[in-house]
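Before drawing any conclusions, I needed to go through one protein's amino acid sequence and its backbone structure tokens, quoted below without any editing.
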Amino acid sequence: MLIEKERPGLGSQALSEGAQRDAATAMTRHNYRLSADRADIAVTDCVVVTMDSKGCLSNAATELDKLTSGLLSGLFDRGIATGKRGSTLLVPLSDKFPAKAVMLAGVGNVGLRDREFNALVQAVYAEFTATNIRDAAFYLTEIDVIERDDYWKIRQQIVALEAAAYCFLPGTRAEASRPQRDIILASEGEDLKPLKDGCAIAAAINTARALGDTPPNICTPTFLADFAVKIAEQYPSVSVEILNEQDMSLLGMGAMLSVGEASEQGSRFVVLSYSGADAAQRPFVLIGKGVTFDTGGTTLKTRQGMRLMKYDMCGAAVTMGALQAAAMLKLPINVVALAACAENMPAGNATRPSDTVTSMSGKTVEILNPDAEGRLLLCDALTYAERFEPDVVVDVATLTGASLAAVGRHYSAMFTHDDELSAQLIEAGEMAMDKVWRLPLSEEDLEQLDSQFADIANMGDGTAACVVAALFLSQFVRSFRWVHLDVSGTAKIHGEDIGATGRPVSLLLQYLLTQARLAD
């Protein structure tokens, strides 16, 4: 529901509420709309404007300063407001003004970098959680963000606000501190694209985070499959097919089936297809690892090692969320999301070290380590993807702890033989603030996967482990351009306050948005 208050002074650039209602999505926590209203006539609980470290006010802040007879500039003169980068100051207003309060956000003395802008938006939101502010008008598009335009600033405000408002557990105190708010974003133009894109990206991130945070006794392979069905029911442009273990057996997906062999939860292979273009257009295929809980199987993890293992399905969550956003935005491309879902458990019939299985490709695999199970799911998914004759395949997986050691928590590890595709994803990651770092697919390390008893082993000697895992997958890539994203460091928050991040949804969607623009 959009804001119902009367808004005087709507000019010719004011945007149709009906059009904005269509653009906003119920899957974001807050309601967003764009407005060309001046800050001094905005009817809202709080108007958010900026000041630099020299006391210079933004245009919107200047309008409010005139309306309040120099209140804001006086706060700087008295040393109450500093304009220091990242600072916030909430100033209540009397009943005679349209807004109930002003939030002064500090921007320092030079242009902000994109991450500083993101942090400032979230700092403003953090101030809201301690107040009864229910709606706000943000005039942050005026901020100078280095190499970023108004489209990016509007879109990123939505993404940042939704990230700050995210709460998994409904009905808790934490959830109560994040009520649904009506958010106005200042915009001088009538283009709804930043609103639509921002809401879709934020909603997809929320989807991926919520799926990741769902407890593993609830988020089973069947749960993920049922969620995919719900997506298909919501969008006419999306179809779904769910393969059970019998279906997979008939297809010869022996590598994938070996992962869930000992679980009471049946494995599922989800095929979500979004048709936004002519059927002749080759699709983009997104493959996600969906291990809903990974004990390590017969190579059992330690107690501490298992703590984050409900997040081993984040790849599947991300790919389904990204496809959902493509459908929301009606992108003029075709997208397929494949989610390989299984639970890796120990039992008498579990896969043992040295077992050999036959993959869908016909290659035999010696399973030296049942805890290197993600690549067993993905190798069959890569073979399955061939039937779509895809243009590009991107697989996303929390595949190896080695990628966390290699590139840390801020970059996803990327592997590909395709320089052009690598450049496109690096550029998309920069734009989306969801960065990747390319690591080598060193052919010299392929020998680590030699096996005396099968065509290939699923494990090397432990050196360059994330590289070797990617090399294993590369042996199942035959007829399409391919990228592997190892997101062990980025898909979840590490430390005491664990949780899903929704990464790399933003990266994938930025890439798809760019490809859609080229196809349109």
